[in-house]
Amino acid sequence: MDEMVFFNPGDAIANSRDFGEAVRGAQIYKAKDPYESSLVVAEDVADNKKFYVYFAKDAKPNDKEDTGVVQYNVKKRI
After folding, report:
1. CA end-to-end span of the chain, whole Å?
2. Contacts of residue 77, Cβ cutoff 8 Å, sequence gap at least 6
3. Which among 27, 28, 50, 78 is least buried, having the fewest CB atoms inside 10 angstroms?
4. For the chain, what is the mean pLDDT?
5. pLDDT at residue 67 in the model
6. Is 53 exposed, middle or buried (0-12, 13-18, 19+ CB in 10 A)?
7. What is the pLDDT of residues 1-36, one digit of tens each?
8. Domain around 36
9. Sequence-distant (≥ 6) Cβ neighbours of residue 75 within 8 angstroms
10. What pLDDT was estimated at residue 56?
11. DSSP character at residue 50
C-alpha cells in the first residue's frame, strides 16, 4: 500500500506525466543542493498519470478544512 501525503500543489518543484522523468528531475535538483530537505516523488490520487516532486518538509497534515491541499501517493523518496 502506498503512503498518503498532502501537499499544496503550488509548492511543486517539478511535475511530469512520466515517472522516470519526474525521478530524473528530482535527482538533478537534489544534486544541485544535496543538503536541502529530502525530496518526494508523488503520484496525484485524482489523476494517476501525473507525478510531482516536492520537498518532504512541505508535507501538510490531513486537514479537511484546508482546501488548498491535495492528496498524493508517495512513489519514491530521494
Report:
1. 19
2. 38, 39, 40, 41, 56
3. 28
4. 88
5. 73
6. buried
7. 468 889 988 899 999 999 999 999 999 999 998 888
8. 3-77
9. 2, 19, 41, 42, 43, 51
10. 92
11. -
Instruction: Determine whether 5 is exposed, middle or buried from the number of CB atoms within 10 Å of its CB (0-12, 13-18, 19+).
Output: buried
Side chain identity at 1, as an amino acid letter? M
Cα dihedral 13→78→55→40 (10° resolution): 80
* Distance between CA atoms of residues 65 and 43, nearest Å: 22
Q: What is the pLDDT of residue 39?
A: 95
Predicted TM-score (pTM) of this structure: 0.86
Other CB atoms closer than 10 Å to residue 43's CB: what's the count? 19
Confidence of residue 37 (pLDDT cuts 50, 70, 90): confident
